[in-house]
Amino acid sequence: MSIMEYNGGSVIAMVGKGCVAIGSDLRLGNQALTVATNFEKVFPVTDRIYLGMSGLATDVATLREQFRFRVNMYQIKEERDIEPEAFAHLVSSTLYERRFGPYFIEPVIGGLWKTQGGEYKPYIAAADLIGCLNFAKDFVVAGTASEKLFGVAEGLWEPDLEPEDLFETISQTLMNGVDRDAYSGWGAIIHIVTPDKVVTRTLKGRMD
Amino acid sequence: MECSFALTGKGYVLIAADTTAARSIVKMKADEDKIKSLGPHLLMAYSGEPGDTVQFAEYVERNIRLYQIRNLYPLRPASAASWVRRALADSLRSRSPYSVNLLLGGYDTATHAPSLYWIDYLGTQAEVPFACHGYGSYFALSLLDRYHDPEASLEEGLATLRRCIDEVAKRLVVAPGKYKVKVVDKDGVREIEL
């Protein structure tokens, strides 16, 4: 029994053309016993950054509170919103602080950053439980269904997808990935982040 | 073995917990109340390591009371659940963690909505329509999946609860004998005889 698989759950993020998508399943379990089917693992950080966390559910909740606090402190000190890259390093150092007694979560970050020219570019990143960052140009995954998600995403993802096409791609990837994993599933939630708005949709999945 | 159940209905939350206090294979007591009222509209069923349970429940009870004294209004169920979760999550990474599992049921007098929180000793929290702790959960959860109705009247809710208790009594080898049942609704907290 691994502590990372105790509660189950999976998270995924994908890059599109001037947009990013991030989503998670909704299951909360106690090993094989499903306790709740409304447990979201993706949270807004700013208007343009979302953070997903898979792993031990108690640490998901604790770190969500901790990141909210640290991002608020950053905003007060800097008098501006945090950028995705800075936030990724905030996540990384928060996790590495607990190097020898870690929080048992794997974070996935999806956001848009503003270039000098004023346009928005997509940014995604993931890390392991002690904060080793992994920047990707295409997609990142985490959680109990991560192997399956890698496989499906590798087959479905293509560069420069428009928001609606990206939504279809990430939804199909997540649904088909978690359906092959007993510890993930029970519906999903997807956020599509674009420069002017965020579209959030909940998906119904196989309930078994 | 310890069992506790809870379910929400139309304007109420029902909580049931067995009344045995056991040590090893010996039943020390058969009328232990393991459901505390934390306020006028808040109930908490606790189970887990004997000793930890009462100690932690009283710690929570006093702190929730202190909030009410300081602010002249009680914590709403969602906030109370968050506070209790935090207390358990902090305790988990301390030298001597509490091993206590909780079901927190409350009626929000501002929104007139009942809510139920499932919290385990790790500090995992979930808002659920129904919940169980202990070996009883392996039998009761599937029954509740089939029979739970969030719009059910108190009588219907009690019938569903009785179904769960009867099933556990029938199928679980180490089933407890007696339960205490409490309900929280707009009128506050009260005990119900099954």
Automatic annotation (TrEMBL), chain A:
Gene Ontology annotations for the cellular component aspect, listed alphabetically: cytoplasm; nucleus; proteasome core complex, beta-subunit complex
Domain of life where this protein originates: Eukaryota
Keyword tags: Cytoplasm, Nucleus, Proteasome
Keyword Ribonucleoprotein: no
PROSITE patterns: PROTEASOME_BETA_1, PROTEASOME_BETA_2
GO biological process terms held by the UniProt record: proteasome-mediated ubiquitin-dependent protein catabolic process
Purpose of the protein: Component of the proteasome, a multicatalytic proteinase complex which is characterized by its ability to cleave peptides with Arg, Phe, Tyr, Leu, and Glu adjacent to the leaving group at neutral or slightly basic pH. The proteasome has an ATP-dependent proteolytic activity.
Assembly: The 26S proteasome consists of a 20S proteasome core and two 19S regulatory subunits. The 20S proteasome core is composed of 28 subunits that are arranged in four stacked rings, resulting in a barrel-shaped structure. The two end rings are each formed by seven alpha subunits, and the two central rings are each formed by seven beta subunits. The catalytic chamber with the active sites is on the inside of the barrel. Component of the proteasome complex.
Descriptive protein name: Proteasome subunit beta
Lineage: Eukaryota, Fungi, Dikarya, Basidiomycota, Agaricomycotina
Automatic annotation (TrEMBL), chain B:
A cellular component term, taken from the record's GO annotations: proteasome core complex, beta-subunit complex
Keyword terms: Cytoplasm, Hydrolase, Nucleus, Proteasome
Pfam families, A to Z: Proteasome
Quaternary structure and interacting proteins, as annotated: Component of the proteasome complex.
Highest taxon, organism lineage: Eukaryota
A biological process from GO: proteasomal protein catabolic process
Keyword RNA-binding: no
Upper classification of the organism: Eukaryota, Fungi, Dikarya, Basidiomycota, Agaricomycotina
Alphabetized GO MF terms: hydrolase activity
Entries under SUPFAM superfamilies matching the protein: N-terminal nucleophile aminohydrolases (Ntn hydrolases) (SSF56235)
DNA damage found in the keyword field: no
Cellular location(s): Cytoplasm; Nucleus
Family listed: Belongs to the peptidase T1B family.
Primary role: Component of the proteasome, a multicatalytic proteinase complex which is characterized by its ability to cleave peptides with Arg, Phe, Tyr, Leu, and Glu adjacent to the leaving group at neutral or slightly basic pH. The proteasome has an ATP-dependent proteolytic activity.
Name listed for the protein in its UniProt record: Proteasome subunit beta
Main location: cytoplasm
Gene3D superfamilies: Glutamine Phosphoribosylpyrophosphate, subunit 1, domain 1
